[in-house]
Input
Amino acid sequence: MQKKITIIGAGAVGATTAFALLARGAASEVVLIDINTEKSLGEALDIKQATPFIDNCDIYAGSYQDAVGSDVVVITSGIGRKPGQTRLELVQTNVGIIRSISSEIIKYAPNAIYILVANPVDVLTYAFLKYTGLPKNQVFGTGTVLDTIRLRTRLSEVFNVNKQQVHANVLGEHGDTSFVSWSNATIAGVPLEEYRGAVVNPSGIPTQYTHEEIENYVKKSGGKIISRKGCTVYGIAMSTTHIIKTLSGNSETALTVSSLHEGEYGINNVCLSSLSLVDRNGVRSIIVQNLADDELAKLRLSANALSEVIKSVGL
Output
């Protein structure tokens, strides 16, 4: 399927996402837009010279006008926290960036599906919705999709099973208040807590593990990667690419994207991650799962924390 993708932000995440989209056949045309035009030109040329080994695709650097006809727009633009900068100051800066982007891009791609990647992704997704006035199905963030694949990676190691057999999700904010929905976690359809007992010959499965150890792995992975190499790119690039491939399919897929909640779980007027059905039109519906009481409390706590940030920046 022919699909035009515009990526705003040609930094490490934006450029890696562009390459992943083309390499996995998720796009036939990619436009890279960045305030640093030399950077976007360089990244586009570098990737373009790899495309002879990729079928039917093109990539080039452009401006907002080149986004006309885009099926999907991915926004990775934003800055990381500087030494001495508070989280609130960072949010205010990145909300300002999103505001300036939204006023331009919407002129040229009003019908595109918009995926927010820049952090804090939940707040920026909400901001983009408010600034553009687009229908909520057209705008969502990558949310805890990255957290969820980190979770599944770790659980597959713990239980020595194929990653695709692990079905477990991280919900809430993509940040400090995220949590694992252990009550709904399964391996090959078997509830996670029952899996070891269900395996007749459980060699290679550890006798014990703790929820805390797993959740710490998920929450601290990003920091460990950044301390060692300066940034995280591959996980988020593949997460974004997977979401975009889902948008090209004929069936709905459940993903933990960050979407606007309007009463689900008793949560209103905030974007955060619970399971959502995603199809070619964006987010069709939120799936309201049966969460354990403590998980529901954590989800609402996460929503309240995000609401406070939203209020503090005047959205």
Summary: The mean pLDDT is 92. Residues 87-108 form the longest helix (22 residues). DSSP finds nine helices and 16 strands in the chain.
